Amino acid sequence: MENGGRLISNVTLYACGTCKNNVASVFKGEKKREVVFPALVAKFEHIDYGTVLFDTGYSKRIFENGIVSKLYNLLNPTSVTEEETISYRMKAEGLNVSNIILSHPHPDHIGCLKDFNDYTLLATGDCIDALKRAKNLELVFRNQVPDESADVKYKRLEPVKNSGDAVVKMLSVHFTEVYDVLGDGSIYGIRLDGHMNGQMGVYVPEYRLLLAADCSWGHFFADRVDKMKAIPRKIQDDYGQYKDSISRIKAFESEHPDIKVIYSHEEFREGVYEQ
Fold first, then answer.
1. HSE of 36 in the Cβ direction (CA atoms, 13 Å)?
2. Which end of the chain has fewer CB atoms surrounding its CB within 10 Å, N or C?
3. What pLDDT is recorded for position 1?
4. Which residues of 149-162 are buried (b: 16+ CB within 10 A; e: fewer)?
5. Average per-residue pLDDT in the chain?
């Protein structure tokens, strides 16, 4: 069969802008050390759906939101060039995006939503609601949200229930809700509350790859979650759930060491993903 029988012929990872912070300002007992966090976007080439994205990274809009942008960049200095944006890259590659899977609607994940047309946005109902109400205190910025007149179709994902699917069973051992994102078993969503209510990671069984979004800012940070200072804890939607989701990811990794887990803001190798 074409593509060796795979539904997804290619997975490509992009760093679409960065932000930076100091480890000592996040965790107790750490020496001052500045860390640069890439904003991950994944592209899936699907045999039926064409180009599908997981998140859209930063865009220049993060600098174009008045006093909100100034405060955001004061606390979370951001860097992104036009050439780094996922919309520029997709145009350069001559690709039309059919579907965008959204982990959660923070600015480093929705930066380019307005740059694409005629696509379906797939996310949990909680994240779609947060996107549409666009409150600054929830770190969802109105200037990054597609206009009501835009040709964007919103699909609220519903958890799979009473399924005999082996992948759903495997994921359900560790995660409270599992979603068959495209309805064909090619990409599964997992609910990862804590950083934001309704946040979703994705698992791609054909590549044994789990993208854990902002469940943590990386493995280094996940291992130090108990040392997180008060202000970073407050940034999380629910610190208790944040810790719980990290524990679930860790347990999953321990049980499935052959599955690669990548958080959205840790170092990763850009380009075509190879198992």
1. 10
2. N
3. 41
4. eeebeebebebbee
5. 96
Are the CB atoms for 178 and 158 separated by under 8 Å?
no
Q: What is the CATH number of the domain that holds 99?
A: 3.60.15.10
Between the alpha carbon of residue 102 and those of residues 114, 128, 166, 202, the distances in Å are: 13, 9, 24, 10
2: pLDDT strictly greater than 60: no
> How is the beta sheet containing 178-180 ordered, strand by strand?
178-180, 188-191, 200-204, 209-211, 260-262
Q: Answer whether residue 150 shows pLDDT above 90.
A: no
Q: State the distance between the two ends of the chain, measured CA to CA, in whole angstroms.
A: 20
Q: What is the 3-state secondary structure (H, E, C) of 156-185?
A: EECCCCCCCCHHHHHHHCCCCCEEECCCCC
Place of tokens 């994921």: 171
DSSP state of 12: E
> Whole-angstrom Cα distance, residue 169 to residue 36?
36
Of 269, 263, 195, 266, nearest in space to 54 by CA: 263
Q: What's the number of CA atoms in the CB half-sphere (13 Å) around residue 96? A: 7
Look at the block and give the residue holding tokens 């860390």.
35
Domain range for 125: 2-272
Residue with tokens 């835009």: 150
Amino acid at site 116: F
Most confident listed range (20-24, 211-215, 229-233) = 211-215
Q: What is the distance between the alpha carbons of residues 159 and 189, in angstroms, rounded to a whole number?
A: 9
